[in-house]
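USER:
Working in pairs, take the chain set out below, taking as long as you need, and write a paragraph about the fold.
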Amino acid sequence: MEIRTTRFDHPDAIRLNDLVQLEYAERYGDGDATHMAADHFDPPRGLYLLGYDADGKPVASGGWRAQDDAAEGFTAGDAEIKRMFVVRSARGRGHARAMLAELEATAAAAGRTRMVLETGQKQPEAIALYTSCGYIPVGGFGHYRDEPLSVHLGKPLAG
C-alpha cells in the first residue's frame, strides 16, 4: 500500500468517508456526528492520509488533528485520530497497522505528545488493533465523551 498525504475534502477521501459512515450506520444506527472540517487536518496542526493499492485504488484512510481543549476532555499535546478505515475487500493485509504507524510518526514529528482516539464497543476489531499497538483506556473526550458505547484510548508518542 502506498500512503499519500491528501486533504479531507479530496474526492477519494470523501468516498472512503462515505463508506465508513455507512459502516457506522450498520453497527450503531447512525454515522459519526463529530464535527470535522478539511482544515482540521491541515499541517502543522493535523494531517490526512490515504492508502492506495497496487492498482491505484484508495483502500485505507486516516487522519489526526491537534487537540488541546481541556474543556472537551483533551490534554495539551493531544493528536486525535479520525476516520481510520480500511475497505472491506482490503482488510487483513496490514493496511490499518501501516496507516496507524504513519499517523503516529507524523503526529510525533509535529510535536504532538499523545495520540488519542474514540471508537465503539461494536467495533471489536478496531479495539483489538489499537490495544495490540499499545493503546490503553483514557478519560472520555470530544463529542462522544459521555456515550456508554464509546471506548476512548490513548498512547504516548515518542518525541
Observations:
- The longest strand covers residues 58-67.
- Strands lie at 2-6, 46-52, 58-67, 78-86, 114-120, 136-137, 150-156.
- The chain is about 25% helix and 30% strand.
- Residues 86 and 96 are 7 Å apart (CA to CA).
